[in-house]
Amino acid sequence: MGTEKCGFAVKALIVGGCIGALLIVILIPASFSTVEYHQFGFVRQKTTGAVDTSKVYSGGKHFVGPDYEFKVFKADTQFITLENVTVFTSDKLEVSITIFIQYNLRKDELPLLHKQFDLYYEDVVKNSAIDAVKGSIPIYSTRQLILNRVQVQETISKAIRDRLGGTCCRPGCPYNGSCDSGCVPYSSCADNQKGLYLDVKGTQLGKLVIPDDVENRFLRTLILQEESAREELYQEAQVVRKETEKIVAQIKNDAQEIKQNATVLSEYIGTVSKANYTATIENARAIGLKKLFNDLSITDQKYKSSFDYLRTLKDLSNIYLTVDFQQRIAGSFGSGSQ
């Protein structure tokens, strides 16, 4: 009898061990839950639906128990397109504007987001962004919306960041120099100053649709401005042409004056050179005659004058002199010559 009881106990122990091992094999894999790389997650109990927001899980496999799973939120960048949002300008005109927004949920403030909006935050974010756009546009006129797109986009971006991201400084921003101007220190920032607990990564201003009559007036104004600018350019061109003609005339006048001065100077130099040449020749002739008369012992002034006269006649191009047996000197001295 004792042996039978012992055998029964052993069998019960073996069966229990097998069941335990089977449960381990089944329950351990079931205790792991996955959070994808593009998700954040909170642990949620399957049986009760209770969510533990004390810890935010990132991508990976996590051991949470067989009765638990993850309630997930998007961790990657999310996109919003506010298409044809109607707003009023400072000149009381209704225009339509398109805005593109990119944002990310803040991991450290995800419990606050879950507490206030659960998983249904997207519509709230979109509507809040629309309110921010409508509140920031009325300071601009229709013309400013068209001409100052960069400034308008900066204003809209700041309004959306303040509305969706709040006015609190991000943790650690004083150390990396990324704090927004005028932000509230994070340590003293209340929950209602944290916006919708997300970071706006980018905001782009899309197309702007204005009323047809306003657009036509604006285009006409632009055309008139361009025509006015063109007329100013024409007038400036005429002035430049006149100035250029004046400069050209002045240059030509200066060139003519320089040319005339050069001609007068050239004639002066030529006249002086000829005078110096004649004086040099005459001086040399006088010296030569003096030497000739001295060498030939000619002292009578009559013979000196006759020799000089004959030499002078000889140098004349229109005088032809000959000597024959009947007349010592013959020549043509005009109609009355012998």
UniProtKB/TrEMBL annotation:
Pfam families: Band_7. It comes from the Eukaryota. Keywords: Membrane, Transmembrane, Transmembrane helix. InterPro entries: Band_7. Residues 48-242 form the Band domain. The chain crosses the membrane at residues 12-32. This is Band 7 domain-containing protein. It comes from Sinanodonta woodiana.
